[in-house]
Design goal:
By secondary structure, this protein is of the alpha+beta class. The protein contains eleven helices and eight strands. α2 packs antiparallel against α3 and α7 runs antiparallel to α9. The longest helix is centred in the first third of the chain and has 21 residues.
């Protein structure tokens, strides 16, 4: 969006097509929107989309400056009027009179191209629940009628349901993001949640194993489908999705490095079926990193490579090649899913009477390993946690 221009624009996806959406005011100060189809699909390249945007923007700018599109006169914001109970209007613009549910749909369509799938789905889930709650207690509520006490009431409701502080904080952040867009687009003059205080997240006390427990963990997973997954998570502190996203091209056996550059997530497709997706957009910029290849992990990877070649030969055409090149696959070539990792990990440690530990808590042990690398040298760990 170019805020320095007398108009603004964003990109949005509608019916599988990329659009440029211009936002401007006419001579009477009324907000107008113009959707221009780029004729590009939702999954077009960034380069092609940028070229289309530049062309469309130049054409719109020429029309705007030549008077083909009305320029705005000086416009004073409409005063805030109270319309009575149960809620008052915060703003008087066409967009503020949109039903909240319609606004949320518009916002989700606008932000979808710029968010990771997991983030988008989280925002969508939270705001749909928020709207559903308000439709029960405040039917037909509009964007302009929404006040901070409505949000507070919803958050209190989630807490009463047993939602923890950390969970409620995620609700707060998702709703806040939705309403921030309305302020940025000047649908409403101020942020509805400015008067709210972010819920305090519960302090999570992470569990971690001592050296004996960790060696026992490695022992009980010996020969298991998750053996390599558990070792990589514990030695490198990777997230579940990052371990599953490792490919052979990320491992440089010559220079002894391993690069984290992809993740695998599970989500529902358009038919409502669970499907695995590979993404290169990681959680943060620092998440994309190259790490030294630990000798113990290198040995396990080489053994895995030999086994993979063996099973490919045995299975022949029955070997699953959908995720060819990924490391964490089973004997038949199927990529291990994130849900299976969580379920299997919990099952194995429970079966063998180990102290409860989340798979994600394995990340903590990498700090211990880093200290070993510093004080004992690179070859300190040979398959057991010392």
């Amino acid at each position: 969006m170019k805020a320095s221009l007398p108009y603004k624009y964003i990109t949005s996806v509608k019916n599988g097509k990329q659009y440029v959406v211009f936002d401007f005011k006419d001579s009477e100060g009324k907000r107008k929107r113009k959707w221009v189809n780029t004729e590009l699909t939702e999954k077009c390249s960034k380069k092609a989309l940028k070229e289309a945007i530049d062309t469309i923007d130049a054409e719109f700018d020429e029309q705007f400056r030549n008077g083909a599109i009305e320029k705005p006169k000086k416009f004073k914001p409409a005063p805030v009027f109270a319309l009575g109970e149960p809620y008052a209007v915060m703003a008087d613009t066409p967009e503020s009179r949109m039903k909240l549910s319609a606004y949320i749909d518009e916002w989700l369509a606008a932000i979808r191209p710029n968010l990771a799938r997991t983030t988008y789905n989280s925002y969508k889930s939270v705001n749909k629940r928020f709207v559903a709650y308000l439709e029960i207690h405040y039917p037909g509520i509009t964007l302009g009628e929404l006040k901070h006490n409505h949000v507070q009431e919803f958050l209190n409701h989630k807490l009463d349901e047993g939602c923890k502080g950390s969970c409620t904080k995620q609700y707060y952040l998702a709703i806040h993001s939705a309403l921030s867009y309305a302020v940025k687009m000047e649908y409403i003059p101020t942020h509805t949640m400015d008067k709210l205080v972010m819920p305090r997240a519960d302090k999570y006390e992470a569990t971690f194993y001592n050296k004996d427990e960790l060696n026992t963990l490695f022992e009980v997973f010996k020969g298991d489908r998750l053996e390599l997954v558990v070792h990589i998570a514990a030695y490198y502190g990777l997230r579940r999705s990052e371990v599953l996203g490792l490919r052979w091209d990320a491992v440089d056996f010559k220079n002894k490095t391993i690069t984290i550059q992809r993740k695998v997530i599970s989500d529902y497709d358009e038919n409502g079926q669970r499907k695995l997706y590979v993404e290169t957009r990681l959680k943060t910029n620092s998440t994309r990193r190259t790490l030294p290849l630990i000798p113990h992990i290198e040995k396990m990877l080489l053994e895995k490579k030999e086994l993979e070649a063996h099973f490919k030969k045995i299975c022949g055409s029955f070997y699953d090649r959908e995720f060819e090149g990924f490391i964490c696959r089973d004997s038949f070539g199927k990529l291990i899913s994130p849900e299976y990792v969580t379920m299997r990990f919990h099952y194995v440690i429970t079966k063998h009477g180990l102290r409860h530990l989340r798979f994600h808590d394995l990340r903590i042990h990498v700090r211990v390993f880093c200290l070993q690398m510093i004080f004992r040298g690179r070859n300190a760990c040979k398959g057991t946690w010392r």
